[in-house]
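BUG: 3D viewer hangs when loading the predicted structure for this chain

Environment: internal workstation, default settings.
Expected: structure renders.
Actual: progress bar stalls at 90%.

Input used:
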Amino acid sequence: MVGPKFKLILLAVLGVIEASPFVYAYDGISIDKIEVVSQTPLATLGVPINEVPSNVQVATAKDVAQQQSTNLADFINDNLGSVNISNGTGNPFQPDVEYRGFTASPQLGQPAGLSVFFDGVRVNEPLGDIVNWDLIPMNAIAGINLMPGSNPLFGLNTLGGALAVTTKNGADFPGTNATVSGGSWGGRQFQVETGGEIKEYNLDYFVAGNFYHQDGWRDATSSDVNQIFSKVRWHSDVSTLELSLALADNVMNQGQTLPMSMMNNPKQAYTGPDWVKNQMAFINLKGSTFLSDTKLLEGNVYYRRSNSQAMNSNAQLDDANWTAPGGCSGYSNSTTDCTVAASNAYSNVYQTGVGTSAQMSFLDDVFAHKNKFTSGASIDVSRVTFNQSTYTASLIGNQTINDPSLTVDGLGNSLPYLQDQVNFQSRNYYYGIFAADTFAVNDQFNLSASARYNVAQVRLGGMDNNYYDPNSGSGDGPSSLAGSHTYSRLNPSVGFTYNPNNAFNFYGGYNEGMRAPNALELECSDPSRPCTMPVGFTADPDLKMVVAKTWEGGVRGSIAQNWHWNAGAFVTNTYNDIQLQVTNGTQGYFNNVGTTRRQGIEFGLNGKVEALTLSARYSFVDATYQSNFSMNTNSNVVSGTETIVKGDQLPGIARNTLKLRAGYDLTPEWNIGTNVVLASSQWAHGDEFNQDPAGKIAGYGVMHIDTRYNLSPSWQVFGKVTNVFDKQYSTYGILNSSIYGSGNSELFVTPSMPRAAWVGVTYSFGGAKKSATEVDKD
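Structure tokens produced before the viewer hung:
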């Protein structure tokens, strides 16, 4: 039989809801406020945060509900340290997320350095390891853990950190909430969630739906996001079994970056149309059982399928003085309806993934010392089918229109209607075995060690039917895309925590992680045959795996009962880093460029004084190249090739960020809160050598305000204003030449959203009544 002590542990850690402070009581036993985080993706059995040798950051369902962020990327950017976002698409659901200088992006071609998990399943897509933030429903989130460093237990792509999201269940989130809201630029949203228990069968259930539309503040940037999540869970005193289903069907239009010469009207799109449609179905079966007082078995099996359709418009002018078909001599801002040779690329990506993982935890004492040992294994298999066709088009106004009549470009070269057609397949096999141990030397000092052995196999096939003109000799002709690549490595981790008293907790550690080159990078790595961006392919050489090694140390503690603080430093060296080398505006290839380094410091403080809640997070991230290499440039400072030298800053990363959050309870029914985000300047993409005067994006500060008021126990109204002071700023920049300009390079940026307002109302019934400061479960 399982004793009451371990029943308590089970209640405390099964399905760790929010990774936040809990107070538990069972059979007369009580534990005061254990803050628990998971040390593996399954997130079933947690570890007290004061035993974790790194600066873990957590957020709860209450935080998410209070701030009403439209997507996960925006929420973590507003609240978590060392995070900044950059948006190159112009759509709010598709930003790049940078954490400690590492990226999780929805855009093919961006280097992946963060792993993202949804209920224990890695949701980095098989093609390009991208992360589609639009597929994660905000009203299903119970908790968020941001694990720093090259933690090997989270497997592939965990170079700089792992973001783990856990979902709600009906036992902890009972009742029904229906929310209707609307706001700027035709914004409207309907959210519903309902949860409950069927106690006679030991069952609980939870269902959430989210349906969002906004026209977009810029031309052609509307978004339609439709998400459904459901979960049914059976549980007893010692076991739990849950089955969840997530569905999504989204359409997002993109406005692209704008050259600074066009920023007098930031609402306009550069060229178009550009859009992406994402559909996803995800089934996950997860369970755990205590085999005895000291043995816990847990595991999961999942199936995930996604379908992404996209259109990318492209119009590039290499020579400002050419004569376009149709008689337009030259091209400038004053020219209207001038036919310019362009292209439209249409792609379909079908991705299916299946996988399983299992692990056993042993809680027996070792040599009369408390100890927790976990070992397990995982298998993930995915298949990718990619199809893309690129057609000749004409630029009419700022729209690229397919044009089968256009047979020659402005320079006299033959121009086929179907320029390129790619049919590409990839099979990915990822295997891992791991072990982790936390050993209590005494009540104050803990040692931890873990290791994971990864094997990644990437098998490629298909054809690139690139256009070939026998008269001019242009084009490469058909080429095979077949290939097979295998990568393997043992990645270790060691660390310690020391608690001299309740006010201080010292921690330190070293860990290693790896990333296998993905199919996109492997199929586009030959400098002599660059690929048409973003997704043209050729059969190319092998690439080396990326390896990250992280040192981290710091101290955290408490000031009185309600105030907590932390201070730490980290260094991550990444070897064989992979860089996209752009050969011109539309072509490029991937290659290993040597070593890069991300290092920095982090400070945090949060607490409460009566009705006032405050938090602050500051981070300094210094991300630099540590190897010399050359690459093509769009800069006006040098012609053709720039030389990157040791110490040059990586683009797209703000060195300094400060996140402030304040909430005040005006009355028990009325709460008001504000977020302030401050970020320093960053280098633009295309200025990796940090010498172009136009290659820097200015820093910015932005404030958001949110408020909630309970009209009655069942009715609640809320509002939010973003960018309160209507600040014009940008989070993404790239050097390029404008087709509407002189042909010289200039800075392109994505203008950020101006001031916007949302208001809404929520009707709740069937659950515990909440105050405005308890908008969701603590």
